[in-house]
Specification:
CATH topology of the largest domain: RNA Polymerase Alpha Subunit, Chain A, domain 2
Distance between the termini: 175 Å
Number of helices: 8
Number of domains: 4
Helix content: 10-25%
């Protein structure tokens, strides 16, 4: 080594080499940075959604003319290639914006290493209004038809109203809140737990921006055969023991619904059910089950069964005094008067449950002599006695008659002479000709047992009169012929 160090040529070469190294180091460290070359590229990001920040959506409604923008960005190829589109954000800050019209700049952010060259558009026009809410009834739009012969009933909607929220300028356009139902030959009730609701204007256009609460409702739409609601009449079969009579019959409901064709229902005015009394063994109140069967030609009846409260009591009697006799059917041009009995009234002995007899008075009884179609002269007319239901005449089989004189205006004396000694100077009857609209049926026999030695039951009365007691609340008696 000492040998080389003493060699001048070697030292010169070494010094030159060190000088070159030092020069290179100095010039590299002090070279301008703008001389460094970096390769960048541009890229277009389409449909970047404009986000909203700082907006009170519960209080205000926002409309804007821009929903998304196009961004022109620049960066190294590696950054542009491997940065996802959702790393580019554009938003609108509405923290301090008041109701009205405003033009606001868009805010943005880009991934690290990527810069924005341009954004189109770079601002947004916004309109802000207070939200307004109003309640509307929920209606249904029904398209299609049920099965042939079936009809739609009244729908049940729960809840029946909904609230619509819109800007004040749009809320006035709401004409209805409606759910849509499509039918295709259904014969069973339509049921939907979540039927979506829509808001429409008066032209039937949907208001898509409407906020509806609740957004859906529960709907049940009856689909049935045609139906008719009829009054329930009850007749009886079976017999009551001993001297019992009916005091009261109370069904759970007094109307029934019958389903069938329109033609069949047209001929129905009431529904008659038959109650069997044979299970009643003592006085008091019992609960009986009444079976209801659909009338011939109909589909079904509702209810199919019902409970009936039946009260029975020991039979008693009562006499109602001075029941007036009414005349009906007097022909035009004639006048009529009762000549026997001369009092133009009569006493009636009736039988029934004590509670019913206690409530009975003359106003509840009708005694009618029908002289329709008869000429001038004296006629013996059978009396038609109408009584409240479950009350009967004592000795109902005995004939009750009255003598009535029909007078022609031209020959009142001749008519009077034809009476053959009958008192013609009797006072005018208090009963004027009746309206002629009272129903006449055969009487129900009295429950006294005097003529047969025992008390007939309701079924006995039915066999004697050709039917069960009337179910309209009245017993009407006719006691003989001319």
């Amino acid at each position: 080594m000492d040998k080389w160090m003493k060699n001048n040529n070697f030292n010169k070469i070494l010094a030159l080499a060190l000088s070159i190294i030092l020069w290179t180091i100095v010039h590299v460290d002090t070279a301008p940075t703008n001389q460094t070359t970096v390769n960048t590229e541009s890229k277009t990001i389409e449909n970047v959604k404009v986000e909203i920040e700082g907006f009170d959506s519960d209080t205000y409604v926002l409309t804007k003319d821009v929903d998304s923008v196009r961004m022109e960005v620049r960066g190294k190829k590696s950054d542009l290639t491997y940065k996802f589109s959702d790393a580019y954000r554009v938003w609108l800050d509405l923290s301090d914006v008041k109701p009205g019209d405003n033009t606001l700049p868009l805010m943005y952010s880009t991934p690290s290493g990527v810069t924005l060259d341009d954004m189109v558009p770079n601002q947004v026009n916004v309109h802000i209004e207070l939200r307004t809410t109003k309640s509307f009834p929920v209606t249904l739009n029904i398209k299609g038809e049920p099965a042939e012969g079936y009809k739609l009933g009244t729908p049940v909607i729960d809840p029946a109203t909904a609230e619509v929220t819109l800007p004040a300028s749009d809320l006035g356009r709401v004409a209805k809140v409606q759910g849509n139902i499509e039918l295709d030959g259904e014969s069973e009730p339509f049921k939907e737990k979540k039927l979506k609701l829509y808001a429409y204007d008066s032209d039937g256009n949907e208001l898509k921006d409407a906020v509806i609460e609740p957004s859906s409702v529960s709907v049940e739409l009856p689909i049935t055969l045609p139906f008719k609601t009829l009054p329930l009449d009850i007749s009886f079969t079976g017999s009551l023991p001993g001297s019992l009579v009916l005091a009261r019959v109370t069904p759970e409901q007094d109307m029934v619904t019958v389903y069938g064709s329109d033609e069949t229902l047209l001929n129905l005015s009431s529904y008659e059910a038959v109650l069997d009394l044979s299970s009643i063994t003592a006085a008091g109140t019992a609960q009986l089950k009444l079976e209801l069967k659909p009338p011939e030609g109909t589909g079904k009846i509702e209810p199919a069964t019902m409970n009936v409260s039946v009260s029975a009591a020991e039979i008693t009697e009562r006499t109602i005094s001075a029941v007036p006799i009414k005349l009906e059917g007097v022909s035009s041009g004639l006048t009529a008067r009762v000549v026997d009995p001369v009092s133009t009234s009569m006493d009636l002995t009736v039988s029934g449950a004590p509670t019913l007899l206690d409530q009975l008075d003359r106003d509840n009884i009708s005694v009618v002599a029908d002289v329709g179609g008869l000429a001038a002269g004296i006629h013996e007319i059978p009396l038609q006695v109408s009584l409240p239901r479950f009350i009967a005449l004592k000795n109902a089989g005995q004939q009750l008659t009255v003598k009535v004189e029909l007078l022609a205006p031209a020959t009142p004396e001749a008519s009077a002479g034809a009476a053959e000694g009958t008192a013609t100077a009797s006072p005018e009857p208090s009963a004027e000709p009746a309206s002629g609209n009272e129903t006449v049926i055969e009487p129900s026999p009295a429950h006294t047992g005097e003529s047969t030695g025992e008390t007939p039951s309701p079924s006995d009365a039915s066999s004697e009169t050709g039917g069960t007691p009337a179910a309209n609340g009245n017993n009407t008696s006719s006691t003989g012929g001319t």
